[in-house]
Design a protein that fits this description.
Layout lengths: L3 E3 L9 E3 L22 H5 L5 E3 L2 E3 L2 H16 L8 H18 L6 H26 L20
Antiparallel strand pairs: 1-2, 3-4
Length: 154
């Protein structure tokens, strides 16, 4: 792995450290666009036009197929938008990776690497996942009553 550097001389001879971050954040985003398309079971449950029923405003089928898909894509983060699940996860993971991987010093890269790497990766993943999940209920959530001023039938 080209991220490793072995110290060649001095009191730390033989110790190995990372010269670059040995991991990369990747994403696989899946949005149920079928449910938001004309004729789907979910589509057919919605009101033909936006209307108020019992004091609650329900979204129209047109809102479901035209307005909602780009809002959901921005919220989930199909292009790693800053205020999206993907963007927040990636930002937190990259921030922590620099700090956490820098702490690792491996005496024997062939026998000690995987356990230490996995341990650090788990810490980073847990923190990034928590930050991403938190955006659903904090000020970073871009799906709110302003962007979705109505509700859906389920």
């Amino acid at each position: 792995m080209n991220s490793f550097v072995t110290i060649a001389d001095g009191p730390n001879t033989g110790l190995v450290y990372f010269a670059s971050i040995p991991a990369e954040v990747t994403h696989s985003i899946q949005i149920n666009t079928v449910a938001m398309s004309t004729g789907s079971a979910f589509y057919n449950m919605q009101e033909p036009t936006t209307r108020v029923i019992g004091g609650r405003t329900f979204c129209s089928r047109d809102f479901l197929t035209r307005t909602l898909p780009p809002l959901v894509e921005a919220h989930e983060g199909t292009t790693a938008q800053k205020k999206s699940h993907v963007g927040i996860f990636q930002s937190k993971a990259e921030e922590l990776a620099r700090r956490e991987f820098e702490k690792l010093v491996i005496l024997d890269p062939l026998n000690g690497f995987k356990q230490q790497f996995d341990s650090v990766s788990e810490v980073i993943n847990a923190a990034a996942t928590a930050a991403s999940k938190a955006m659903d209920t904090d000020s970073r959530n871009n799906l709110n009553l302003g962007s979705v001023p109505c509700e859906f039938h389920y």
